[in-house]
Structure prediction request, 104 residues.
Amino acid sequence: MAIVIPVVLQGISIANRAGVGAERKEIAVQLAANMLNQLSVSNFWQTAQTSGTFEQDHPGYAWSMQQQAWPDGAMQQLTLEVTYPLQGRIFAVELSTLVDDSVQ
Prediction:
């Protein structure tokens, strides 16, 4: 019985860490989608800063945006990366979309 308890506790710990990781990744994806939509729909991507944090509502979460010309036509590819801490490491998610470069 003494051998079983540490193994069970380790299993619970691993399951808990996986759950926390999935929850934080889900938050990061939602934050990235919201910020990318806000920047692209309002055309703020042309004038907005290219990085920031979500410290007020989500401490530890930060974002950065990169843009590059799309090969076909007057389009730009916006890529928004959200980073978040988990167990002493930094993880990231990236979402991208195309925006019309000719719209002002």
The mean pLDDT is 85. The first strand starts at residue 51 and ends at 53. The two ends are 70 Å apart (CA to CA). Residues 4-41 form the longest helix (38 residues).
